[in-house]
Amino acid sequence: DIVMTQTPSSQAVSAGEKVTMSCKSSQSLLYSENKKNYLAWYQQKPGQSPKLLISWASTRESGVPDRFIGSGSGTDFTLTISSVQAEDLAVYYCEQYYDTPWTFGGGTKLELK
Amino acid sequence: EVQLVESGGGLVKPGSSLKLSCVASGFTFSSYGMHWIRQAPKKGLEWIALIYYDSSNKYYADSVKGRFTISRDNSKNTLYLEMNSLRSEDTAMYYCAKGEFGPFAYWGQGTLVTVSS
C-alpha cells in the first residue's frame, strides 16, 4: 500500500498568514504516460464531510478560492494557503489515487493562534 | 446538483450485521463507479470499497475483505454496503462517494455506525 505522511499534524495560525503543509508519499504518484500526479487535497470542517479542493496535485476545483495552491510532484507535495481566512480552519487531508487501495494522509489541523 | 444520501447506520453489538444504503441523484448513477469511505471518531479517512458502474468489479480494503460486501442497484440509483461480523474497530462514520479512479469529488453526509456491547 502507498503510505501518505502529512506534516505537521496541527498548526496554529493567525488570519492573513501564509500557511504551508506537506504531504509525502511512499512511492511516486507521477504516472509517466500522462505526466499527471494522482494526488488530491481535501478540506474537512467539523461536523461536515470532506470537500475536494485540489486534484492532480495542482488543479483547483470549481469554486475553490485561489488562495489555495497545490504544488509538488513525484513523492513530495504541498498545499499552500496564501492568506488564511477564519473559514479555512479545518483539517486538510491529502489522498493518492495512483493505486488501490486509495490512501489518505493523517491530516493537518489548522487552528486559531 | 449531485446528492448522495446515506442511511442505515446505528448501534449494533459485536458480531452482528448491518446494511447501509446511499441514494444518489443529480447524475447518471449507472455510469459511475462508487466508493465507501469511513472515518473512525476523531480519526482520519479510510477507503474501504469500490464498485464499478456495472458491478463488474469490486475492490475492498484488507480491513474489511471477507466481511463487507459492496453492491448497487442501478434501477434504484442506490449503493449498498452489507457489513457482517462487525467489530468495535468498525465504529465510524460511513460515507459514500462518487467516482471511479479519480479523486472523490462528491461525498454524502455520512451515516454513523457504532459497534458496542
Would you mind describing this structure in some detail?
The complex is a heterodimer of chains A (113) and B (117). By secondary structure, chain A is mainly β. Chain A contains no helices and 13 strands. Chain A has strands at 4-7, 10-13, 19-25, 30-31, 36-37, 39-44, 51-55, 59-60, 68-73, 76-81, 91-96, 103-104, 108-112. In chain A, the strands form three sheets. In chain A, strands 2, 6, 7, 8, 11, 12 and 13 form a seven-stranded mixed beta sheet that branches. Chain A has a four-stranded antiparallel beta sheet with strand order 1-3-10-9, with no helix packed on it. By secondary structure, chain B is mainly β. Helices cover 0% and strands 50% of the residues of chain B. Chain B has no helices and eleven strands. In chain B, the strands form two sheets. In chain B, strands 2, 4, 5, 6, 9, 10 and 11 form a seven-stranded mixed beta sheet that branches. Chain B has a four-stranded antiparallel beta sheet with strand order 1-3-8-7, with no helix packed on it. In chain B, a hairpin with a 6-residue loop joins strand 5 and strand 6 (58-60). Chain B is globular, with a radius of gyration of 13 Å. The model of chain B has no long low-confidence stretch (mean pLDDT 97).
